[in-house]
Specification:
This is Thioredoxin domain-containing protein. Residues 9-160 form the Thioredoxin domain. One of its GO terms (molecular function) is antioxidant activity. By secondary structure, the protein is an alpha+beta fold. The chain contains 5 helices and 10 strands. It has a single domain, classed as 3-Layer(aba) Sandwich (Glutaredoxin). The longest helix is centred in the N-terminal third of the chain and has 18 residues, at 49-66. The protein is globular and about 40 Å long.
């Protein structure tokens, strides 16, 4: 398991379109996923200890952001050949077990991860209502262990995006396991 940090926010970068199958059996697109005030695109997976350690907080933040017009979508781009825990069937199980309040979709070809420049799980991309990138940072100060009372970096940034259309200029990169690319 390789731990990586993605680059920081490229403000104004336009969200790339996608059309991916969700664990709910439906197709999800950029247009169907977006909220009136923005969209949080999360690259996550099932096996990553970084994702596992923040899963509950991702769910909490996604639910609260919905109340502010920010929708969320989770994309799983790992090759499940070496990580069976990331299979589509296991994605269904995890989404059901944790009652994901957002579409959980499979980037089977890994093209969307490449289009977005995603490098790790979790990797967060926060877009405004015009689908311009305004946040690419961490969820909070936690890594694999929760930090009590950690400031909610992603949540606070996305609230700012919902209100002003702009993300904070100071951002701290996320950290996580490398995306498992196909050979």
């Amino acid at each position: 398991m390789v731990s990586l940090q993605p680059p920081l926010c490229d403000f104004g970068w336009k969200a790339r379109p996608f059309d991916l199958l969700g664990v709910d059996g439906k197709r999800h697109t950029l247009e169907s996923a977006r909220g009136k005030n923005g969209l949080l695109v999360m690259f996550i997976c099932n096996h990553c200890p970084y994702v596992k350690s923040i899963r509950d907080r991702i769910i909490r933040d996604a639910l609260e952001l919905q109340q502010h017009g920010i929708n969320s979508i989770a994309i799983m781009s790992n090759d499940p050949a070496d990580y069976a825990e990331d299979s589509f069937d296991n994605m269904k199980l995890v989404a059901r077990q944790y009652n994901y309040p957002f579409p959980y979709v499979w980037d089977e070809t890994q093209q969307i991860a490449k289009d977005y420049g995603a490098v790790c799980t979790p990797d967060f991309f926060g877009f405004n209502a015009n689908l311009e990138l305004q946040y690419r940072g961490r969820l909070d100060a936690s890594r694999k262990e929760a930090v009590p009372d950690a400031p909610r970096d992603l949540f606070n940034a996305m609230l700012q995006v919902a209100k002003t259309g702009q993300g904070p200029r100071e951002q701290i990169a996320s950290m996580g396991c490398s995306i498992k690319w196909k050979e």
